[in-house]
Amino acid sequence: MAESDNGWKFAQCFGDKGEVEDITEADIISTVEFDHTGDYLATGDKGGRVVLFERNDGKKGCEYKFYTEFQSHEPEFDYLKSLEIEEKINKIKWCKRQNAAHFLLSTNDKTIKLWKVFEKSLKVVAENNLNDGARPQNGRIQQLKLPKLTHHDTIIAAVPRKVYANAHAYHINSISINSDGETYISADDLRINLWNLNISDQSFNIVDIKPVNMEELTEVITAAEFHPIHCNLFMYSSSKGTIKLSDMRAAALCDQHAKLFEEQEDPANKSFFSEIISSISDVKFSKDGKYILSRDYLTLKIWDITMENKPLKTINIHDHLRNKLCDLYENDCIFDKFECTFSGDGQNVLTGSYNNYFHIYDREGLTDIALQADKSAFKAKRVGSAKNKMLSRGKSNSKKEEINVDAIDFNKKILHASWHPNENSIAVAATNNLFIFTCV
Amino acid sequence: MSLRKELFKGKGGLGGGVENSGDNSLHQTASVQEYEVLEEIDEEKNNLESLPTFFIKPRRKKDYSPVSWETCFDICRDIKIPDSEDVFKAYEILGTSENCPIFVFHHGAAYSGLSFALACSYIKQLMNGGCTMFAYDCRGHGYTKTSDDSNLSLDILSQDLVNVLKAAYGDNVITSRDIFLIGHSIGGCVVADAASKGLIPSMTCLAVLDVVEGSALEAISGMLGFLRTRPTEFKSIENAIEWSVKSSTIRNVESSRITIPSVLKKEESIQTGAIKYVWRTDLAASRPYWEGWFLGLSEKFLSAKAAKFLILAGTDRLDKPLTIAQMQGKYQLLVLPDVGHMVQEDAPDRIANALVEFWKRNERLVLPVKKVTS
Questions:
Q1: B341 is catalytic
Q2: Which of A390, B47, B323, B324 could anchor a disulfide with A5, C-beta 3.0 to 4.6 Å?
Q3: For residue A282, which of A219, A236, A234 has the smallest C-alpha distance?
Q4: Nearest C-alpha of chain B: how many angstroms from A229?
C-alpha cells in the first residue's frame, strides 16, 4: 500500500536517479509541459533535447512511457558579440492537435522552432527475385516476380517544420500560443513579438520596454501568456512585480496596458531585497480565463482578473527564507525562477521550492500539500515506510514547522512542473529526473 | 549573466561589482546570423521498444562517426616516386601563388597525414592562401604503399621526405621554394635528421612537436607494455574513434573522427565473413628502429640551419642539451597546457596560431638591392 497524502502519491520517475554530484549538466530538465489532452508529456533539457512521453492507456491509472526524443536545438555561437547561445530549451508549448501528427513549439534563448512529430511507416523492398544471392535454377520468365514494398517498421519521426530565428536580441523567456491556433507570442527580456505560425521570416513587435539609453534600464519582462479564451488579450509580468494585461485591438504597439495588476508594497516590509523578491518569475491564466496566478520569490498570488489593486489571495511558500535573503543573494538563488501552474479545473495551484519540495494549494490557500520529488518518494512507495516525507499543514494549525533552514539543499530546486489538463496528475522536474505524482 | 541579474548585481549591488565576463548584453544589437530554413530532415530514430516504464536513462549520444579528409584538405593525391614502386598518399591545401612557401608536415608513428587535418584548416584561414600545405602518409602508414613497408629506419624516412617533395613539386622544390618543416613525434626526428643532413637546402624554418631525445629514449622501455594495452582490433571505425577519445589518446573528438579511419585497415575473416578493423601499422614490429629514431635528436635539431621551434605538451621535460640551448636562445620553445601527446590534434587552433606566428616572424627577408653607383 503506497504512502499517500490527501490522495497524492508517487507514480513514476524517469531519469538517472544518481546523486546530484554526478549529474551531466546536459540532462538537467529545463521545461515540462503536458499537451491539451494530457496523453502526451514533453520535457526539454539543457542539452537542447526534447523528450516526449505517451500515456500508457493499457494500464489502469496514471502511467507514461517513453515516446520519442529528438535534438531540438544545438549550441550556437554569435560571432558578432562573441557570445555562446545555449541550446537549453526554455519552453515547450503544444499546438492543439488537428490531425494524426503532433505539433509543438520549442525555444531556446534565441530561436523558436515548430516541430512536427509523427509516426512514419518504414517500408523495405521485399520479395526480391535474388533474395539470397543465388542464381535461379532456370531463369524462366514466369518465375520472376515484381519486388514489393512492404511495411517493415513504424518509427516516430520529428521534423522541424518552421524555424523562427533572428527576432530576439535578448533571451527568450516565454512563448504562448493563441486560442486562435494561428498566432503566438514570444517574449524576451525587453520585447514581445507576435508571430503567425505559418510565417517564419516575419514577426510583429507588440511590446517594447527597452529604454533609449540602456543605462536607464530598470525593469525586464519575465513571462508572458495569451488569454485562453480571448484571442486579443495577453499579459506579461515584470521584474518589478507588475502584471500588465494588454489588448491587441487597442493599438499596434501594446506598451500601454489595459489593466495593471500590482499590489502596493507595505512600507514596513521594505528592505534592500524587496525589489528583487517582488520580481514575478511566472504568470499563468486559469483555464476559464478569470483568474491569474503569479509567482514571486517567496509567494504565490491569485488574482481576479477584474480586480487590479490587490490579489485575492497571497500564499507564502517558504517564508522561512525571508531571513536568509542575504545568503541567497550571495549564492544567486534569489534569482531562481520558479514556475507556477493552475490545475485543469482551476481549483488548485502548484509551485516548487527547494530541497526538491513542491506545494499544492487549493485556490483559497487554505490547504497546503507539500510533496518531495526525491529518491525517498519511490523508496516509500515500495517499502511503505513509516518515514513520513509527506506533510500536511492546515492553515489554522499555526504550529511552527521545524524547518531547518541550514539543512536545505539549494541545489535541489523544483523550478518546472506541469499539471495534467483533465485529471489530478502532475509532472515535476527535479534536476535531471522527471517525477509523476497522481491523485487519481 | 541574465539581464535581470545584471540589473541588480551588475550595477553595484551589495558590493558585487560588475562581473566583466565579456558579456555585453546591456549593449546588444540584433545579431545578423544567417539561418536557412531546414528542408525535411529524415530522422531515422529507432523506437526504443518496451522500455521499463519505471526508470529510463535517456543517454546523450555522442557522435563518433568518421569524417572525410575533404572537410580540411583540398586535394588528396597519390605520389609515385620515379624509379621505384613506392606510392605515397598526400593531402594538400594549395596556396594562391606558384612559388609560395610550403609547410610540410610529417606525422608520428602509427598515425597518418590526416593527423594535421584540423591544424591545416586553421592555418589556411590564418595564412589566407599565402602558403601551400603538404601532409603525407609516411612509409608503412595510412594509405601509402611502398615496396618495403617494414623498413622504418630514420635514414630511409628522411630520404622518403626528400623524394616525396621532389616528386610532388618538381626537383627544384628543395632549392627554390621556402620550406617550413613540421614534424610530430617520430616525424620530428625525421625532419630534424633531414635538416641536419642538409637534404633540403631551402628550408627556412623547422618545428618539432612533442618529442625530446632524453625523455623519448627513457620511454622506450615502457612502450612495448603500452602497446600491449592498446586494443588490437575494433568492430567498427566508430568504436575505434570512441576508444581513442575515451582513452585520451586523442582528446579532441573532432580530430579523432578525421584521423582514426586512416590508421586502421579493414580485415575480413574468410571463414566467418566478420569484418574487423586493425591497426594499419604494426608498431611493435618497428622496435628495432626505435633507438635509431631518437639518438642524436637534440643535436640534430640544434645544428639545423634554420629558425627552430619546439612545441611540447605540458608534461614533457627538456633534456640537458635542449635546456642549455634554450637558455642560449638557440630555439623558440612553446609549452601547451592541457594537451596530450597528440598536440596538433588536441589543440589544432593553438598549434596553427603558433606555427603561423613563428613563420611570419622568421620569414625570409628580401631586402631591396641597393644600387651602388661607382
A1: yes
A2: A390
A3: A236
A4: 31
pTM over 0.80: no
Find the distance separating the first CA and the last CA of chain A, reported in whole Å: 15
The residue ranges of chain B whose pLDDT is under 50 are: 11-59
Q: Could you tell me which residues come within 8 angstroms of residue A222 by beta carbon, excluding any fewer than 6 positions away?
A: A173, A236, A237, A238, A239, A279, A280, A281, A282, A283, A337, B4
Mutation test of the interface with chain A: which of B14, B34, B56, B349, choosing the one with the most A Cβ atoms within 10 A? B56
Q: Kindly state the cell numbers that stand for B268.
A: 575480413
The chain B residue lying nearest A163, using CA atoms, is B37
Q: Which of B6, B20, B43, B63 to mutate to test the interface with A (most CBs of A within 10 A)?
A: B43
* Distant-in-sequence contacts of B290-296, Cβ < 8 A, 24+ apart: B290/B220, B290/B223, B291/B217, B291/B220, B292/B153, B292/B154, B293/B154, B293/B186, B293/B189, B293/B216, B294/B189, B294/B211, B294/B213, B294/B216, B294/B217, B294/B220, B295/B213, B295/B217, B296/B213
Res. A385: pLDDT tops 70: no
- 3-state SS class at B358: helix
Gap from B125 CA to chain A (nearest CA, Å): 16
Indicate the DSSP class of residue A289: S
Instruction: Check residue A226 and give its pLDDT.
Output: 97
Q: Which of B112, B115, B158, B185 is catalytic?
A: B185
Residue A398 has pLDDT above 50, yes or no: no
Q: Considering only alpha carbons, which residue of chain B is nearest residue A215?
A: B26
- Are A316 and A299 spatial neighbours (Cβ–Cβ below 8 Å)? yes
Catalytic position from the list B193, B210, B316, B346: B210
Pairing of strands B102-106, B132-136: parallel
Predicted confidence (pLDDT) per residue in B168-207, tens digit:
998 888 888 899 999 999 999 999 999 999 999 999 999 9
Domains of chain A listed by start with CATH number: 8-439 (2.130.10.10)
Tell me the angle at which helices B253-263 and B117-127 cross, rounded to the nearest 10 degrees. Answer: 120
Residue A13, pLDDT above cutoff 80: yes
Interface ipTM: 0.75
- For cell 586494443, the residue is B231
CB B122, CB B61: distance < 8 Å: no
Q: Active-site residue B107, yes or no?
A: no
What's the gap in Å between the CA of A176 and the closest CA on chain B? 21
Model pLDDT for residues B131-163, shown as the tens digit of each residue = 999 999 999 999 998 998 888 999 999 999 999
Report residue B133 as a C-alpha cell.
600545405
- Domain range summary for chain B, segments of one domain joined by +: 69-362
pLDDT digits (tens, 9 = 90+) for A299-347: 999 999 999 999 999 999 998 898 888 889 888 899 999 999 999 999 9
Interface contact flag, A68 B45, Cβ < 8 Å: yes
* Distance (Å, whole) CA B66 – CA B256: 8
B141 is catalytic: no
Q: Indicate the CATH number of B69-362 among 3.30.70.100, 3.30.200.20, 3.40.50.1820, 3.65.10.10.
A: 3.40.50.1820
B353 to chain A, closest Cα gap in Å: 19
